Amino acid sequence: MAVGAPGSLYARLIRWGFARFYHEFAWTYDTVAALVSAGQWRNWTLTALKFARGATLELGCGTGYVQLALAQRHAGLRVGLDRSPSMIRLTRRRLQRSGFPASLVRADAGALPFASASFDTVLATFPSDYIAAETTIVEIRRVLRPGGTVAIAVWARFADDSPYARLVDVAYRLTLQRSPRNPTSDASIVLQRFTALFERAGLETAFSEVQAPGGIVQYVIGTYRKHDPHLPDS
Predict the structure, then answer these.
(1) Looking at residue 159, what is its pLDDT?
(2) Which residue, 62, 153, 161, 172, has most beta carbons within 10 Å?
(3) Among 45, 37, 28, 33, which residue's Cα sits nearest to residue 168?
(4) Residues 9-35, buried b or exposed e (16+ Cβ, 10 A)?
(5) What domains appear along the chain, each with residue ranges and CATH number?
(6) HSE toward the beta carbon, residue 209, CA cutoff 13 A
(7) Residue 72 burial by CB count (10 A; 0-12/13-18/19+): exposed, middle or buried?
């Protein structure tokens, strides 16, 4: 998620640029992501598979790494969702090249087009700020079945402080992003924010660090275990 002064002109320009990156220039996404992660972006996103079970919804499916891995695992119902038609096209192409059918939906995470209690797992890897909106968390809770889990990869950090990591750190800071060189400077604030959001939505909160090639990925985990009278029944 982005950091910095969200109301400044510079921050608005950065958000505009990222919007273009996710839409018109989505074809560059994999290359750029590899460059800013020392080639580990795919490996970092695939750590989400540790949490996938049963019917699985992926929010922000991007270019399809997780969707393809779920298909290869024969993991049952899997759905990829993204707001960007360009990302949906890239994911569909990746799946079709490998001979798998695509189950993809273009929609907003704050208004999920699924019936309540549709999924056992909801995944999101390095999503943008939409994931920390209360409407998004309430919708995630709504589509989860009792005992279901949401797993959100909130950041990754490099395994070592190499010259490459220090160079990449500059690029992240210039674009107001949390750098994998030192992503935990505001860790307690971020984790407290998710804890509060999950608690209000009726989700129990836990945290997990997953080892990955070249680094460690931090997850926030929410599990639906109790009835919330303020939300639709599952």
Answers:
(1) 84
(2) 62
(3) 37
(4) eebeebeeebeebbeeebeebbeebee
(5) 9-224 (3.40.50.150)
(6) 9
(7) exposed
Q: What CA–CA distances, in Å, run from 94 to 15, 54, 65, 91, 210?
A: 27, 22, 8, 5, 25
Distance of alpha carbon 150 from the chain centroid: 10
124 and 153 in contact (C-beta within 8 Å)? yes
HSE, side-chain direction, 13 A CA sphere, residue 153: 31
Query: What pLDDT score does 5 carry?
Result: 45
**pLDDT tens digits along 159-179:** 888 887 787 777 777 776 777
Q: What pLDDT score does 152 carry?
A: 97
Averaged pLDDT in 10-residue chunks for the chain of 234 residues:
56 75 80 86 96 97 96 90 96 96 96 97 94 96 97 91 78 73 74 93 95 93 74 48
What token pair was written down for 22? 């996710």
**Amino acid letter, 206:** A
Place of tokens 């960007």: 84
Cβ neighbours of residue 102 closer than 8 Å, sequence gap 6 or more: 67, 80, 91, 92, 95, 96
- Long-range interactions of 109-112: CB distance < 8 A, separation 24+: 109/59, 109/60, 109/81, 109/83, 109/133, 109/136, 109/139, 109/140, 110/135, 110/136, 110/139, 111/135, 111/139, 112/57, 112/81, 112/139, 112/140, 112/142, 112/143
